[in-house]
């Protein structure tokens, strides 16, 4: 059980599961040593999550700035700006729209969820061509 928790924490903190080498060292550690590793991984996870939040915030700010620029270029309002921004994209279904928002780095944010709902009402879908 404890091994599963460490494995999950390691993956969340570092992006990959612990290696066999890690587990060999882990077995040799005292309870205090294992606790130190656990605490270190928990701290790494906190730093990673904070970095992700900061990157998402910058991505939101960049996308909002892009919308503002398009409005200044003549779109006139947010809805038209979003239509112009997405006009060169090909959307076949809602997952295509989700992918677009994901590419902006904001899909899993509250802002991204609201943007996705806006775009689902705005974009034009194309028929998928089967070859």
Q: Any chance you could write out the topology, listing elements then pairs?
A:
Elements: H1 2-14, H2 20-28, H3 31-75, H4 78-86, H5 94-103, H6 110-122
Helix pairs in contact: 1-3, 3-4, 5-6
Low-confidence region ranges = none
What is Rg? 22 Å
Count of helices? Answer: 6
What pattern of helices and strands is seen along the backbone?
HHHHHH
Q: Please give the domain count.
A: 1
* Number of β-strand runs: 0
Work out the strand percent: under 5%
Category by helix and strand content = mainly alpha
| Terminal residue distance | 49 Å
- Average pLDDT metric: 95
The description of the largest β-sheet is: none
Helix percent reads over 70%
Shape: elongated
How would you describe the overall organization of this protein?
The protein has 131 residues and is mainly α. The chain has one domain (2-122). Helices cover 76% and strands 0% of the residues. The protein has 6 helices and no strands. Helix 1 runs parallel beside helix 3 (31-75) and helix 5 (94-103) packs across helix 6. The longest helix has 45 residues, at 31-75. The mean pLDDT is 95.
């Amino acid at each position: 059980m404890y091994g599963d928790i460490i494995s999950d924490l390691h993956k969340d903190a570092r992006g990959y599961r612990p290696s066999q080498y890690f587990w060999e060292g882990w077995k040799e550690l005292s309870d205090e040593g294992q606790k130190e590793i656990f605490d270190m991984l928990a701290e790494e996870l906190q730093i990673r999550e904070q970095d992700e939040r900061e990157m998402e915030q910058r991505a939101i700010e960049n996308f909002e700035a892009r919308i503002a620029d398009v409005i200044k270029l003549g779109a006139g309002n947010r809805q038209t700006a979003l239509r112009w921004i997405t006009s060169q994209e090909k959307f076949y279904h809602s997952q295509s729209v989700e992918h677009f928002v994901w590419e902006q780095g904001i899909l899993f944010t509250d802002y991204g969820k609201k943007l996705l709902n806006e775009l689902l009402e705005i974009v034009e879908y194309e028929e998928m061509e089967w070859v």
